[in-house]
Amino acid sequence: MPDDGGNLSIDFLAGMTLFMIALIWVATMIPGLLIGLQSRSIDYDAVAYRTGVILVEDPGMPANPPWEIKDDLQKDEIERFGLTISKETPNILKISKVERFFCSTSFSYPDDYRQRVIFGDRPYQFNISLTTFDGMVNDSVGDIKPDGYGYIRRVVKMKYPSNATIQDPNIRNSGPSANVTTHIFSLNINCTNLIGDEINPAYQINPLRDQILVNITNLSKARVFTNLITGDLLYNPCSLDSIKIYRQNPSQPLVQVRTVDDAYIDGGSNLSAIPPVPPGPIVNDTVSIIFPAGFFYGMANDNTQLYINYTFTLTQKDNFFNNSFTSPYPYNYDPNKVTQPKLKEGVLEVAIW
Amino acid sequence: MVNYDGQLYTIEGVAAGLIMLLTAFIVVGTTSVYTPGDTHITDMQLEQMGSDALHMMNTPNTSAASAESALQSMIKNNEKDRFGETFLSFCDTTAGGTTDTLQFSADIYYHKSNPMPEGSVYKVNFTESRHLTGGEHAVRVTEWVQVDNSVGGVLLPASPPLDTRVQAVLVEVLVWRD
Amino acid sequence: MARLNDDAQWIVLMGFMVSFSLIFLGIVINQSTVVGQTTAEGVLEFPKNDILNVRSAIFQSSTLQSSQITPLSLTDVHDDIISIAMSRKNAIVSYRVKCQELLDPNCVSKIIDIHYNNGVTAYNETANY
User: Fold this and answer.
1) Does the structure's ipTM exceed the value 0.90?
2) Do C68 and B166 touch (CB under 8 A)?
């Protein structure tokens, strides 16, 4: 007959009590054991190192076409950020990639960066800063750093874009062109030579991917002529009617690709529009155009010859600015024609917490 | 009335309790928390930064045919102070504006060709920010430099002397934080 | 003696279960703290900077201008790199430079075979330079 009397022996109670006391004591020690598991600090340095390598040793994905020329609407096509010029030149960063990376209007902190440079399952907070030794670049993205964080510091060099400043002796051409009022000044960007002559990406001018700046200056000096009767110095006012871009691929005819619709005239800080129908704006001294990085990417390839033709209309006939009968101004590696800035030192820091 | 029947559960309970407590004490006592020094994380950060600094010093700033990197001209012309200043400026500058405090000690290893016996590698002290006392926890970073000692320059004072030819030397720098 | 009374064995069994789970927990925690350590040691152990350095030293030596080449100069730089790498970096480096165009006196484009082995990591490359 089963024993359902409902009372337990003393022995059982004593043993069970001792067991429960010991069990509770051990259970209260467990949280102390798990403190190490909750601390994530060892992970932070590894993530910071990985982020540093992604930024400083990798050109980003996609590399062709480069991710920095994608506009804000195509943001989703960017899989990974990377600041270096190419895989063969680690630690040498391209200024156009740097400016795009730190552009707060294009990419929002933290989500856009987490998916493309931080990675990992945990929502890490971060701060990425880049400073050049001469102070020209001082960018950062992210929160203020707390007291404890994972950290890496990388030393880098920055490559700045090239520019051509065309001054008086280069403008004045005495070709067989008769005195005319319509002048065409042509600039030639020979992609074959630019890409072929310098194979090291750190020093190469790649017109398809780099920013190109063209300054035509000293126009006032070039247009001075003396009134033969009075001996006074007179200016020959000119207006910039159009800037056209032509392309010639091997074994194909020369075609016009597009026009440039605005430029910086006479040192103004705002762009002046060049209307499609002449007359254009009056130019006294300087015309500057900035072709941003990737501007020529869609319209040219590695073997294209590009011509940028400025058409000026003068009031009086003259023969100073017309190189259509001689040769176009070459954009090449000659330091007298094109200025290539030196690489500048900088430091990049990544903090993760 | 006392009998021995009542010992069963008590003994079992005591035994189980003892086992648990003993195990808990052993386990808690053996798991250790690693400090960043044990995990070599600071070593990794220093090594990466020192390598970067030497690599950037060995990269010419322009592509002119005769362009030498800063490191090549420093070794060719024995410019010890300039090496120290440049290396420390690379290592100590931070993005936040504060400066770090690193120390270094640089040596150059070179090889002499015929008619010396093959495989003879010699060392010459280059420069240092302060003497190594032996208590520093330093990391070693290296950089290969091609030095043209055939024309001009000031040969490093070394014994045996460097060959007057184009040669590859190894710059080895010990970097530590005070 | 009669059969041992093992009615209360379950208490000891519970005790053992708790102990084993504690030991298991201890092992898991021990391994987790090692994660950060092996990451940093893995980074230190992989000779990324060594390999990149040796590559660029080899490429530089292969572009020695003809005016700098004395009869033994190219082999001298080759010996420099191999000897110093062996004695200071504890790495075996061997490389060979061949001209892509066999009849080109200036040897403008070269094929370079590089082998690097530091006992833990081996790196082999055939580069066009």
Assistant:
1) no
2) yes
